Amino acid sequence: MEQVVRSGDRKAVLAAAVTVVLWASAFVFIRAAGEDFSPGALALGRLLTGAIALVIILVIRGEGMPARGAWPGILVSGVLWFGVYMVALNWGEQHVDAGTAAMVINIGPILIAVLSGLVLREGFPARLMAGIVVAFAGAIVVGLSNSSGGSAAVLGVVLCLTAALAWAVAVVAQKPALVHASALQVTTGGCVIGTIACLPFAGQLFSEAARAPLSATASVVYLGVFPTALAFTTWAYALSRTTAGKMGVTTYAVPALVILLAWIALDEVPGPLAVLGGLLCLSGVAITRSRTDKPIEPEDAVTQEVSTPK
Questions:
Q1: Percent of the chain with pLDDT over 90
Q2: Which of 16, 182, 206, 296 makes the best surface tag, with the fewest CB within 10 Å?
Q3: Which residues, in sequence order, are CB contacts of 179 under 8 Å at separation 6+?
């Protein structure tokens, strides 16, 4: 694959920022809904809400179905990221504390960088590797600051590792799909596929929704519309205009924002260790985003030659 990406694409940077902020907010709302919804039911409710919103927007915009070449990536990302990832992470966090889960799941961007370097032939730029090291160190510090000190159950760790691996493979599969379809088409298709994959949890969702308070149900709706429908679309938009490895490292800004949002929304005052970890995460992202090449003309040009996953 030969790929030339204009690093100064401000729209892509803005889209990535929207994704990071909304994904960070998801942690607050997952906590609010998690007391009344089981992992599978929560994933299905979130995906079903997101799929409905995305299909409506797709119809209004008249974009139609994605091209045939996009479907392999849509199917893989839909099952793994929208399906396996969400269920595994929700389930894993029931067996390990939040700090352990955060440390394990943040292996994801490292796997994305390795897989994209090998499969998508993006290579292993020095700044990307340096940023990963700094950001992952920050994620570990944040995880330690949030650890309850309890023992990490093997099942919980395995589930979080499963989520990280599913996320990495899904991103690498999604990247080529964006050559053949728009960000909205790829996200809608993936969300619908993920919803179908989670349909075995429909019985749990309906029974739990009937008993859940309005605030918990509202949290599920929020998760579906904003961190799922909107944030996954802005993610796909940014991914189509930069490398998968660089996009993966961008998510290391999420732990820092989670600390800030938990402070504002939940009155959880961060400790010195959490603040230090958050600053390291942001520093790592900044390293990968620093400009090292000249912009490619014409503006907004992206030249890509990729093969769809086999």
A1: 41
A2: 206
A3: 69, 70, 240, 304, 306
| Residue 121 contacts residue 165 (beta carbons within 8 Å) | no
What string of DSSP letters covers 28-79? HHHHHHHTTS-HHHHHHHHHHHHHHHHHHHHHHHT--SPPGGGHHHHHHHII
Residue written as token pair 């749990």: 204
Q: What is the pLDDT of residues 161-203, one digit of tens each?
A: 888 889 989 999 999 999 999 999 999 999 999 999 999 999 9
Q: Rounded distance, CA 80 to CA 164, Å? A: 10
**DSSP conformational letter for 68:** G
Closest by Cα among 265, 93, 242, 103 to 175: 242
Distance from C-alpha of 247 to C-alpha of 23, rounded to nearest angstrom: 14
Tell me which residue of 61, 29, 92 sits closest to 228, measured CA to CA: 29
